Amino acid sequence: MVRLYTDKVTIGYGERLIVKDLSVQIPDKQITTIIGPNGCGKSTLLKAITRIISQQSGAVVLDGMNISKENTKVLAKKMAILPQTPESASGLTVGELVSYGRFPYQKGFGRLTKKDYEVIDWALDVTGTTDFKFRPVDSLSGGQRQRVWIAMALAQETDIIFLDEPTTYLDMAHQLEVLELLQKLNAEQERTIVMVLHDLNQAARFADYIIALKDGHIVKAGNCEEVITHDVLKEVFHIDAEIGRDPRTNKPMCITYNLLKGECQHEETIDSIYSAVSVNY
């Protein structure tokens, strides 16, 4: 079943097109990861799907409705987004920031209800940030702040959660905690999770569906068996990858790789390759 899809969307900044005529389907109640080199359009696509930016043409459709015509509060009850670089929360406590996730449900003067407080406490609990509730967000470490922002997204109680590189700034243990939390929300609450990940092995381990982008178009979309292959990684990242099996999940994983000589000419592309094949669990 597909509730959310794009129909030939073209997205750009001024005259520079990042994504052109892209049609993609997001499987419902599954975990989808978007992979690809830096600058390929991953974050841009996420922003367009969540209406942070507008597409130049085409449509993003959710439940049969073009989201550009959807009421903001109605849309905010269906999808939440954790951007790659969240806005500053200067002057706010953790509890106050997480309470912003309840905005779509507030009426009148915007006072929080008993239900709101229960959801806020739940979101803090599942992200392991309850002890920070009364602390200023600015006083937290990068990893702690990341978990608080995820708590705010969870407090929004949406069926669909988008996360742009949610493991950024986190050490290995906390990366695994976040990804296992998202996996648990998907399995137990049937939430649709869509996230951009740089780590190919994390994508393979946790995703039901993977979309591999390059230069604003889809090279391959499917399950990890179909996407984490030698040929796909060669086309997307310009690497000669050795694919093996994760001994714990039996899913494909990138064991080692060589850079294809003459294929990478920019330092940014090389950096994206190294981040993509790092093993973080």
UniProtKB/TrEMBL annotation:
This is Iron-enterobactin transporter ATP-binding protein. The keyword Repressor does not apply. Its main location: membrane. It is found in: Cell membrane. Gene3D superfamilies: P-loop containing nucleotide triphosphate hydrolases. It comes from the Bacteria. GO terms for cellular component: plasma membrane. Residues 4-240 form the ABC transporter domain. InterPro entries: AAA+_ATPase (IPR003593), ABC_transporter-like_ATP-bd (IPR003439), ABC_transporter-like_CS (IPR017871), P-loop_NTPase (IPR027417), Siderophore_ABC-ATPase (IPR051535). One of its GO terms (biological process) is iron ion transport. GO terms for molecular function: ATP binding; ATP hydrolysis activity. Keywords: ATP-binding, Cell membrane, Ion transport, Iron, Iron transport, Membrane, Nucleotide-binding, Transport. PROSITE patterns: ABC_TRANSPORTER_1 (PS00211), ABC_TRANSPORTER_2 (PS50893). It holds the Pfam family ABC_tran. It is a peripheral membrane protein.
